[in-house]
Design a protein that fits this description.
about 600 residues, five-stranded mixed sheet, alpha+beta, 3 domains, single chain
Length: about 600
């Protein structure tokens, strides 16, 4: 637990679980609002901006080391105006300032730490910093001191750096429309993307690259549709090996179901233990599609275990899905999820416990900081383990629940709920199981009731009976996907009409008439230093690539030449951005493959 100051700061009035975690810091935090910027201008101070989320391990570390520290708080209070942002509530701010961080440093991550002019222009960026300099890392105290000195003595240089960064951001991705608008849509990018994924494929462990290793579900969706289109003989092999190894590893929770965010090693063994709704939605969709394609029972079991986890631990009573579960408990990452050999024997008894330990690699030596993450990487009979030890897993789930409860970020995000609705509706259709359909429809009803304004526009977040935020492109794109899957499963025309309404809103409020594609923020949203337009498929598919797929589906369902023209234009725009590295745009390639397959 984070230490509490006697007096809370302004964040105590916020609903974000992340901001509330910092409400008792000695730092004089502001939320992102006009008051903070007015104060910075009035007092002639730079802004210290910290962006993170409530289940982020390194955010917790930096909070304990720095934001709960009175020396850091005093330095911030003296020379800066300090703003704290929840990246999940404000993905627009996160996208803008993470892009700046990546341009400054070549990398990004959370917590994101930036120094801004009073106009919001960034002149310094990084991620986690310790309080004091150590091991080659500059300490936050040193950064604050040198920045305060530079602001007093050499401000023009900082202002110029900020101005140039804003200029760089606003020139990002600029292309001449004429250069791509008439380009033919063919399979060239698709074949290049497959080759690039093959070149980074880990033949031993599955997945792509070495470590840290992310599931990147859209890579697998693309390879599956490439296989179905007969574009590559080994595409399905890469998918199946990856799906099996992810399941066998510790990134999958063999006791309670669901996937952690990524693996810190190449083997999928030791995860970064936080569980995010979006990962579990996208992986459910992938395992369901793999079952549809192959009828391999293992994929169905993994998808069902993942959905059952979401239903059990991430579903609000009134409908809708929570955002995430923390990696840390009692101040230690992963403590909630690991076991000792003796613990298992005490809980299951010698007769059942010893075979369980042998099967799930629970040893005296341990495989994670002296304890053991249950996994099946050494078990050649892994396909039968979940059924063979179902009772043992249930007993251990009950036992694990007696440990210190994991923090759960209980805000409900429109975009991520759209993903989960899509995954559940698709699974209900493929597995012929109305349990999942019922929950998907409940969640859609919740969005309609709580996250849509009177004018039909979406909001971003709901928590404690409060819905806020101007819906961004990802909210509309992912919710439209959910509505389309519900329509496919139920054939209720109302879902199709709502999907069309969302798509119309995208075209009205987000379109870039001059450059093609769609901006991340709506035309009536807060004006930031840059209006981003995202096309790269990172941990999640970009909203622009989801829009392309949605448009293709709507065009075919409505038999609309107008919509197919819009979809083709969107694919051309995306293809023009994917040329440098097609594998980094795998959901674009997924949509393009389906377009060519059905042309």
């Amino acid at each position: 637990m984070m230490k509490k100051n006697a007096m809370p700061n302004r964040l105590i009035n916020e609903q974000s679980p992340y901001l509330l975690q910092h409400a008792h810091n000695p730092v004089d935090w502001y939320p992102w609002d006009q008051e903070a910027f007015d104060k910075a201008k009035d007092e002639d101070k730079p802004i210290f901006l910290s962006i993170g989320y409530s289940t982020c391990h390194w955010c917790h570390v930096m909070a304990r080391e720095s934001f709960e520290d009175k020396e850091i708080a005093a330095a911030l209070s003296k020379d800066f105006v300090s703003i704290k942002v929840d990246k999940e509530e404000r993905p627009d701010l996160d996208l803008v300032y993470m892009s700046a961080c990546q341009l400054f440093t070549g990398q990004g991550g959370w917590p994101t730490t930036l120094l801004l002019t009073p106009e919001g222009q960034p002149f310094f960026a990084g991620t986690y910093f310790p309080k004091e300099s150590r091991g080659g890392m500059t300490g936050l105290l040193s950064i604050l001191g040198s920045t305060a000195k530079a602001w007093a003595e050499n401000r023009d240089e900082l202002l110029e750096t900020g101005r140039q960064m804003v200029e760089r951001l606003n020139s990002t991705g600029e292309k001449d429309v004429a250069s791509w608008m008439d380009e033919p849509l063919n399979d060239q990018l698709i074949l290049e993307g497959i080759n690039q994924l093959q070149s980074t494929f880990d033949e031993r462990n599955g997945g792509f690259g070495r470590s840290p290793k992310f599931p990147t579900p859209h890579n697998l969706l693309f390879l599956m549709v490439a296989h179905e289109s007969k574009m590559n003989d080994s595409a399905l092999e890469m998918v199946e090996h990856t799906l099996a190894q992810m399941y066998r590893g510790g990134i999958f929770d063999h006791i309670g179901g669901g996937f952690s965010r990524y693996s810190t090693d190449p083997y999928w063994l030791a995860p970064h233990f936080e569980k995010m709704l979006y990962d579990n939605a996208l992986l459910t969709f992938v395992y369901t599609e793999a079952y549809r394609l192959t009828e391999d029972r293992l994929y169905k079991e993994v998808a069902e275990a993942t959905m059952d986890y979401v239903l059990r631990e991430m579903t609000a009573v009134e409908g809708g899905f929570y955002s995430a579960q923390d990696a840390d408990s009692e101040g230690e990452e992963g403590k909630y999820y690991v076991f000792t050999e003796q613990e298992i024997l005490e809980q299951l008894g010698e007769e059942k416990g010893q075979p369980f330990n042998n099967s799930y690699d629970i040893t005296q030596r341990g495989n994670f900081e002296g304890k053991s993450i249950p996994n099946l990487l050494r078990n050649q009979r892994y396909r039968n383990a979940a059924r063979e030890f179902a009772d043992g897993c249930k007993s251990l789930l009950d036992y694990r629940a007696t440990r210190m409860e994991l923090h759960r970020d209980d805000k409900i995000l429109t975009a991520w709920n759209g993903m989960m609705i899509a995954a559940l509706a698709n699974a209900a259709r493929v597995f012929h199981d109305n349990k999942y359909l019922y929950v998907a429809e409940m969640a859609a009803d919740f969005v309609e009731k709580e996250l849509i304004k009177k004018d039909g526009r979406l909001k971003v977040r709901y928590r404690n009976r409060e819905a806020v935020g101007n819906g961004n492109l990802d909210d509309y794109a992912y919710y439209t996907w959910g509505l389309l899957e519900l329509y496919e499963t139920t054939r209720k025309v109302g879902y199709l009409q709502k999907a069309l309404d969302c798509n119309n809103r995208i075209v009205t409020d987000f379109v870039d008439e001059d450059g093609g594609g769609f901006f991340f923020t709506a035309s009536n949203s807060e004006k930031l230093i840059w209006r981003p337009k995202e096309t790269y498929d990172s941990a999640m598919p970009s909203a622009n690539s989801i829009v392309a797929w949605n448009m293709l589906r709507l065009a075919r369902k409505m038999d609309s030449s107008h919509l197919i023209e819009k979809a083709e234009s969107q694919l051309r725009f995306l293809a023009s951005n994917a040329g440098d590295y097609p594998a980094g745009h795998s959901f674009t390639l997924f949509a393009l493959t389906l377009y060519l397959q059905n042309k």
